[in-house]
Amino acid sequence: MAQHSQTVTGSGIVNLIAGVAATGGLLFGYDTGIISAALLQITPDFSLGTLGQQVVTSAIVAGALAGCLMAAPLSDRLGRRYMIMFAALVFIVGTLVASFAPGVEVLVAARFILGLAVGMCSQIVPVYIAEIAPREKRGQMVVLFQLAVVTGILVSFIVGYLCRAQSWRLMFGLGIIPAVILFGGMSLLPRSPRWLAMKGKLESAFDVLQRLRRDPVAARAELDAIVAMHDEQAPWSALLQPWVRPAVVASVGVALFCQITGINAVLYYAPTIFAGVGFGEGSALLTSIAIGVAMVISTAFGSWAVDAWGRRRLLLRLVPGAAVSLMVLAAMFAQGATHGINTWITAAAVVCYAIFNVGSLSVAIWLVGAEVYPLSCRSKGMSLVAATHWTADLLISLTTLSLVQALGAAGTFCMYAGLNVLAFVFIWRYVPETWGRSLEEIETALKAGTFDRLR
Questions:
Q1: Which of 173, 265, 379, 440 has the fewest CB atoms within 10 Å, counting from its CB?
Q2: Could you tell me the residue range of the domain that residue 267 belongs to?
Q3: CA-CA distance, 149 to 153, in Å (whole number)?
């Protein structure tokens, strides 16, 4: 009975730590999502054409690509916690510059600075959470980061709608609130026990594990397992080793398909696309709020499903629904999305797509990346995952409006439907089941060559 009480207490501490760290995801979501509403005001203010809109939108993605690559060696050297705190400071600076930008050039620079922070958080927050969480709750805890991301997106959509008669500068400026919370909260949290062990600080690692698990015997056993699997910090070239390659293929593939299946095309440009086919500005923004609500609900469901169904099974069950939703959406645009009942079918198809895609690929991307790599190159592996995500995101954000102009909305969404089908095939072939296994057990499977048999 006493042991159960101790477990609950330890879990409470882990939940608190994961919740504070996941505030980085809230900033991630808010700063990437707010552009969809702000762009409707920025475009006439700065006389932006299609290319200008895409550059302003994608600047944060370019910064995120640089930020996630920069974070890996720094987080290995300085620690996961300090890197998250540094990212919070960068969020604050970028938010202030964006809010007072006098012209489009400064705004693009500010969005790039915000992107640096977003990239850092996408790389290091899931790793930090995965390294503190017990195996039985690791999926739910890491997905808390993604839940914070989509909550940030929803908040940005609501703020965009409520501030549509105000300035876009206020939309950007409100992002400073969670940035301050993240910095202050992280200053009170412990360092990653696995990072401490990797640095040879075994007693400090034991102290943290004992605080997290509230059971000295369990903490010592976990530390012994970490030490038994421990290698020195590996260089980037370690990711090219044949025994690590299955982890690279699985994690990078999920990251790539998470983006090229179209979710950020909908996220960034939904109001612009819907306004362009006849929806009023207010109606287009309300459609985005519905999408945001759907994303939060599906991510909350996914946070349960990854530890109830498993990561692989969740992906295989939901991705086909995303493909079907996009096919319906393409058909509606081909027939005339704003005519009669087609308007409602169009909106429903977008919401269903968000539920199926976000509840599967967007839930799994940071979880799979944080789980599958060995400790010696986990930070660098996660950087590769994040870099893949942001490179594909950059491609999407720079081409979506151009694709809509060239192929039409129907052709664009039909293309994304086909990519969802390819994602299903990839998951079936290359993505293993990591549910219920410790990080050290997953690493053992990699070394034994049985990683692809985890089902």
A1: 173
A2: 2-189+238-453
A3: 6
DSSP secondary structure string, 46-114? TT--HHHHHHHHHHHHHHHHHHHHHHHHHHHHH-HHHHHHHHHHHHHHHHHHHHT--SHHHHHHHHHHH
Element (H, E) at 226: helix 216-229
Give CA–CA dist 446/372, Å, rounded: 8
Q: How far apart are CA 438 and CA 136, in angstroms?
A: 8
- Amino acid at the residue 267: L
Cβ atoms of residues 36 and 85 within 8 Å: no
Contact 396, 404 (CB under 8 A): no
Sign of CA dihedral 65, 69, 75, 78: negative
What is the pTM (predicted TM-score) of this model?
0.75
DSSP one-letter string for 28-42: HHHHHHTHHHHHHHH
Dump the DSSP string for 164-212.
Answer: TTS-HHHHHHTTHHHHHHHHHHHTTSPPPHHHHHHTT-HHHHHHHHHHH
Burial of 295 (0-12, 13-18, 19+ CB in 10 A): buried
Q: Give tens-digit pLDDT for 204-235.
A: 999 999 888 888 898 899 899 888 876 667 78
Q: Which residues contact 205 (CB under 8 A, 6 or more apart)?
A: 193, 194, 196, 197, 223, 226
Q: For position 162, which CATH number holds?
A: 1.20.1250.20
Q: Which residues of 367-396 are buried (b: 16+ CB within 10 A; e: fewer)?
A: bbbbbbbbbbbbbbbbbbbbbbbbbbbbeb
pLDDT, one tens digit per residue, over 427-449 is: 999 999 988 888 889 999 999 98
Domain total of the chain: 1
